[in-house]
Structures are given as structure tokens and as C-alpha cells.
Please model this.
Amino acid sequence: MTRTALVTGASSGIGAAIAKLFAQRGYRMYGTSRNPET
Model:
């Protein structure tokens, strides 16, 4: 079973670190950011 995570603020700082951690652990990742180019 694939786990899914939604991380807000995934383009920098704590949000980026959490998104990277979840991705390394095999989660299906969805991330949001204020700037669509990041």
C-alpha cells in the first residue's frame, strides 16, 4: 500500500525538508508553494 503525503510550503525550508524525507521513504508526494516556478 502506497502512503500519500501533502506538504504545504514544499519549495523551501522545513516544508522542503519534510517533502524530501517523505519522498525518500517512498511516499507519493504532493506539495504546494506560493511561487509556481519553485
Notes: Residues 13-24 form the longest helix (12 residues). The first strand starts at residue 4 and ends at 8. The mean pLDDT is 93.
